User: Fold this.
Amino acid sequence: MYEKYKNAVVTGSARGIGAAIAKKLASKGINVVVSDVLDEELRQTAKEIESIGVKSLPVKADVTKKEDVEKLIKTTVEKFGSIDFLINNAGITRDNLSVRMTEEEWDMVLNINLKGTFLCSQAAAIEMMKNKFGRIVNLASISGILGTPGQANYASSKAGVIALTKSFARELGKRNITVNAVAPGYILTDMTVKLPDKVKEDYLASIPLKRAGTPDDIAEVVSFLISPSASYITGTVINVSGGLLI
Ligand code: NDP
Assistant:
């Protein structure tokens, strides 16, 4: 990891993939501001990170609220001195067939997954530009490339995240800020535990590596993308799906 750059924000990091990313970065010596709408779980994750031997701070923030996002970035800079890495992980699903999908289900998913990623990236980029360094990693999904039945809202939001990643990468490259995305396939978390058994069986049958992914599979790739080894990579989407998407 970088000697000089040590401070990360991970959104939606109370549990699941976000918590795994936060712990992975901590294990590499990075201080992590963990952020989520879940207060109690968040404090617990922050404690676990501190026990790894780096600084951690829980900041409750809803990524759809501009004032929460600005407070999150401001607090990070005030307490840690800078924001060097931003991992836009907060995301939800509200599955329904397109003809039955309510406007609320559409708006909620687009707001959290896409608008939230935009607001956090914008606020962080303003700080990163001052330091002429930054690494942003967005959680997309293979759904955003393939489209998924029952997930018109989710797939559209993740396709948007991919386009947002490329647009920010083109704008911020000259400031030494890279912006990349990871597109997970079927990963075992609270988000996927609620899928119908038939859907899970179909996924497993279609994955060439014959297993579901783990949050750690994703955390490893995020850790690579913010490391010096990836300093010449920007605007890319890394497919981490065990071959579900080839
Ligand atoms: P989880 O539901 O386990 O965790 C997501 C976290 O984000 C939760 O703690 C959730 O809180 C939080 N969150 C929700 N809304 C907001 C908000 N408005 N502001 C801040 N935090 C919020 O999901 P995963 O760990 O599985 O997913 C993490 C990311 O990876 C998501 O972007 C997801 O789309 C993506 N992904 C996951 C895949 C999988 O198979 N699991 C596959 C492809 C992509 P709360 O519980 O209150 O909603």
